[in-house]
Amino acid sequence: MDATFWAFIALILFLAVLFYFKVPGMINKALDGRADRIRNELEEARRLREEAQQLLAEYQRKRQEAEKEAQDIVSAAKHEADLLLQEAKQKTEEYVTRRTALAEQKIAQAEQEAVNEVRASAVDLAVEAARSVLSEKVDAKAGADLFKTSLQEVKSKLN
After folding, report:
1. Where is the chain membrane-spanning (predicted)?
2. Tell me: the pLDDT tens digits for 2-49?
3. Residue 5, Cα to own-chain centre: how many angstroms?
4. Which of 63, 73, 113, 130 is deepest in the core (most CB within 10 A)?
5. How many Cβ atoms from other residues are within 10 Å of residue 150's Cβ?
């Protein structure tokens, strides 16, 4: 009986003690529990990955919608700015037209006033000249009557 035999007997006793205390079942149970935990963690990771993909797709869709909305807003703002520019140009042109018409009207009025002043001066000069010519040629009473009729005649023709 050598040491190898006793080592073999000790190994068999050790294995028998292990089986008596059901150590292989506990090891299998621990390994099965660990496999279940790993399987659950893998399923949870797969579920989280799918959720992350869904969130990513939703955020990309929202980003695209936001970009489209921003483009729409920019387009609307450009259109509104163009309308405001056209309206401002139109109002400016109308203002210039009104101011030009008003200026032309004032010029025409000033011309008319100048013509009227020249006419009035001409009438006054003509009346004065006629009075001086008539005063030399006509006596006082006949001159006064002639002056009044001539004055009324000139006034009626000018007005």
Report:
1. 6-23
2. 899 989 999 999 888 888 888 888 888 999 999 999 999 999 999 999
3. 99
4. 130
5. 15
